[in-house]
Amino acid sequence: MPGKLKIFLGYAPGVGKAKVMVEEARRRKARGEDCIVAILSEEDRLIVNADLNSGLDYVQPLSFEYGGKTRSEINIPAILQRHPNTVLIDNLGHANVPGSAHAYRWQDAEEILHSGINVIATMNVESLESLNDDIFEITGKEVKDVVPDRMFHQADEVELVDLTPQALRNRVKRGEIVPTEQIDKALLGYFSEAVLNALREMAMREVARRVDEDLIAWRRQQRIARPWQTSDKILICISPTQSSLRVIRRGWRIGRKMQGEVRAVYVEEPKLPETSKKILEDDFKLCERLGIPTEILQGEPADAIIKYVQENNVSQIILGHSERTKIQEFLKGSLMLEIAKQLKTVDILVVAIDQRM
Fold it and tell me: Could you give the domains of the chain?
């Protein structure tokens, strides 16, 4: 039987996720559980030891020389050999150094969970893969090391670690979060009050959605009728364009918000250039990570999509802005307009072009 996963979610670095995680482990240890620390950042480890004198055992991490520095990664073999009740893992979104057992720390956590060991972990809301575009718009920061949403939503428990933006900014001013020479820049950028408020609201919404999901699961378990009669069916139209990943993520987010069923289709095109093939490959990989069923259709794009929508009772279509030139639009027509003419009772959302392109 796999272990259970508990995630402490924060909206920004410095809110106190690691400290709360260790406090949880100390309570479990007092109840007789064997709890060990798999990995903590150096800063968090110093703070935790000073504040709590945790008394928890640390598994010696593996050391790697990378980029002229010594890096520490989770020692999975040592953890599996000891096989404790619970393991603490800081920062699920961390990218491991080359040579590690897995590319990402969340994959380390999955292996430990599959061995029957419970995991308590931390992560920031910016690490959620489907939020990638929204995080960039708010912070101007592109987060490349992400955690699949499925792991977050399949966690047995998620708890928000909250702190007011004013209190977090005070920590920054005291030099507890960033180096002294970076404080002024941080307070005007990522740690500005506006950005922190937006990130905090985003984290609260994610936890609120988790509560809704748990309630729905409980209703189903108890065979209590849901308060709505039908669910929306959202169709994402994939195309080999520069904004396609943004379209997929936005469609998935809309589906989660509406508690609807999300699917994706691609109308096959002959003689695609290699660059377009690579984009499509990335599109299908993202759909797989997000758990979105995909299907390849044949025929003229508009006709194929219209037929699929009618046969599958789709209520909303998500597609990206056309990258055709005006001449191409004149000769081939607009896909969105063709679909809209035929499907007057279906909502169509055109996702804005990615500003990073």
Answer: 5-217 (3.40.50.300), 233-351 (3.40.50.620)
